[in-house]
Each structure stands twice: as structure tokens, then as C-alpha cells.
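Homework help board

Subject: predicted structure for assignment chain

Our instructor gave us this sequence and asked us to write out the predicted structure in C-alpha cell form, then describe one feature. I got the C-alpha cells but I'm not sure how to describe them. Can anyone check?
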Amino acid sequence: MKKVLYILVVIFLVSCKSKAGLVTTTTPLDVVNDSIVTSGKIIQNHYDNKNNFSTLYIRASAKYKHDDDSQSVSAEIKIKKDEEILVSVRFLGITMAKALITPKQVKYYEKIGGNYFEGDYASLSQWLGTDLDFNKIQNMLIGKPIDDMTKDKYVFTETEQFYKLNATNNNTIKSFFFEAQQYLLKKQEVSQPEKERSFEANYPSFKDYPLGIFPESLTINAFQKQQKTTIIIDYNSMTFNEELNFPYSVPSGYDRIYIK
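My C-alpha cell output:
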């Protein structure tokens, strides 16, 4: 399904890697429950929310919107933590697209165009002009920041609803919004104003499971100049630590896509 590939490309285009050494500024400190709120405290408290799973199986429904075009599909997302992700997109029970993502390689095929892609992150990163890796995708799906926030410094501000941590590097602005009760990630934004493109992932609600707190839904908005693409993923069910299979094979007769 070409729309699925388009969405992934838009997301990857704005998921640029930040470099260490960002400068933090001084902001007024707030006091909540006799604790001084700082960017370091927010980051530490967020990562204290552990997601202790070995495998995760998500049954989801998804809606794609772009201008006047919209489409609803069902999806299965299988995650073997830190090792592989299999995404299957179905329409009326028919598999229309499938992607197998590992730390070393990305494989993808879509039924309508009869095309498939296989390649490593180096070739994809060169083609997209930005760093791409497995962890960014995994983290976004489970409600974690796309970057390891312990490795950089952030500017802390407080909005009416959330704690906001902001970083700017190489004309890329990244913002992460956390709620104050459990320091869950409510939204993450990446924007490149000079290129007129931005991306945001929103997590409207979470559910507490024995193995951790996970999103109940994920809304992605990607802006490219004057165009907006939205994909809404509702996590209908989650099961943990089952033995999962990750079957992937390209149907015969499909044409391979090469990135030069």
C-alpha cells in the first residue's frame, strides 16, 4: 500500500538525529510536592516507567487521512523487543502491505503496486538525508521518546497542561511533552522550519498493564509544506510475552525497488 510507505517516509524524513552538546538555558524552577522540577528529573521519572516485556502483540485499527482522501485498515504489530518488528496491514481481511524491521535491515512490500524493498539503514538514511534506526520506530510505537533523552540536554518550560523539554540542533527542533502525574509522554514533535516539514506523535491515553504502561492509541500528523497527512492507530488489544512468529516472504512476481 503506497500510502503506508509514504507515511513511513514522511516520519523518517523529520526524525533527524540530534548531536550531543546542546546548550541548556536557565528557566524558573517550579515546586511540585516539595520536589524541584528540572529537565533531568522529568527524564529520569519518565524512564522509571518500565516496559518490561520480551514480546508484544498489538491488534489495531488504523485510519489514513490526506487532503480529501481517507482509508481505514486493520493492522497487526508484532514486536520482539530490541530485535524485530513485523507490521501487517490488511483491508477486508487481505494483506495489502507488510514490513519486517530489524536493527540491521528494513524489508517491505505492498500489494497494489507489486513492489518490494530490502535494504539497510545506511542506504535508507542516505536516501532520506537523515539518520534512521530500529529504536526510533520501536520507541514511537510503545510511547517512548524517539531519542535517548539521557544523552542530551534540554530546555525545560512548563505549559498549562504539560512539562515541555525542547532541543534545537542543525535547524531541527525537537519537543517532548510529559504529563505531571506519572511523567508519561503525551506528545513528541520534530520540525524543520527551513524545509517546511514537521512530524508529531500524540498519545491521547494510556493503559496500565502488569508489565508496564502502554499507549491505547497513537495519532501521527506529518506536515510537508502545505500538505498534512494523519494516521490514527487505535490499539484494540495487547498481549505480552507470547511466543510469536515473524513470517515474511515477498510474493512471486513483485518488482524490487532500489535506492541509488
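Reply (TA_rk): Your C-alpha cells look well-formed. For the description, you could write something like this. The helical segments are 2-14, 39-47, 121-128, 134-141. That's the kind of observation they're looking for.
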